[in-house]
Amino acid sequence: MNKISNFDDSHVSISYFKEEIRKFVTKRNWEIHHTPKNLIQAISIEVSELSQCLLFKDDKIENILKDNFLLSNLSDEIADVFIYLLSLINILNIDLTSSFINKMEKNRVKYPIKEFNDGKYYKK
Ligand SMILES: [Mg+2]
């Protein structure tokens, strides 16, 4: 994937993304359309577009990584999902870092390493 100057995952914070989306939405007066329901539906549609990228295609990771056109499409759709997710986070005034930390702690309790160390997803 292309990198634009120093803007990559190791140099940009969540607050940068949140503010960029907030400015983008505000300058276009799109806040009136950004209800939780609309944004959740938009996220769902973008997830479907992401899924469509692999519909009826070979989904082996080694083949996907060799296909620059497919990778570019996947990257665009992932960004669309992220953009709408950030819009939802903004209007709900959610601190994503806190959400992540809290949910990961719940996941560690729900999926203890002692029980989930062999690749299975569900308890027997
Ligand atoms: Mg899209």
UniProtKB/TrEMBL annotation:
It holds the Pfam family MazG-like. The keyword Membrane applies. InterPro entries: dCTP_Pyrophosphatase, DCTPP. The chain crosses the membrane at residues 81-101. This is NTP pyrophosphohydrolase MazG putative catalytic core domain-containing protein. One of its GO terms (biological process) is nucleoside triphosphate catabolic process. Signal peptide: none annotated. The lineage of its organism: unclassified sequences, metagenomes, ecological metagenomes. One of its GO terms (molecular function) is nucleoside triphosphate diphosphatase activity. Keywords: Membrane, Transmembrane, Transmembrane helix.
